[in-house]
Write a structure and sequence with these properties.
3-stranded antiparallel beta sheet, 4 helices, alpha+beta
């Protein structure tokens, strides 16, 4: 089997180039997927849905927030402190592009 000699390989046309390295972590991918269908979610809800500890979610949320993909809002419900997580527009966009790339790599048609 010969290697391609044209510039297509160098031009980055393979769908893997659209994968988001930040989403290579199954936990971060799960957190982003949990938030992709809602405007925002309470920290404890995401923690329980993804089945991780508070400290693990805090660590992953910090990485996503640092990348600009996640907004963290703190407040109170009654007297109890609460933290809400929400994907930013950039986070939603990168998640969608990541899914499109995964489908393309797997040879699956785009949804819709």
């Amino acid at each position: 089997m010969s290697r391609p000699t044209d510039s297509s390989a160098a031009a980055g046309r393979h769908p893997r180039h659209e994968l988001a390295p930040l989403l290579s972590s199954p936990v971060r991918l799960s957190v982003v997927a949990a938030l992709a269908t809602v405007d925002k979610a309470e920290f404890g809800y995401v923690r329980d849905l993804v089945e991780i500890t508070d400290s693990m979610l805090s660590k992953q949320a910090a990485a996503l927030e640092e990348a600009g993909w996640l907004a963290v809002t703190k407040g109170r419900v009654g007297r109890k402190p609460r933290t809400w997580l929400a994907l930013t527009d950039d986070g939603r966009s990168r998640y969608r592009r990541h899914l499109v790339a995964l489908r393309a790599i797997a040879g699956l048609p785009a949804p819709g």
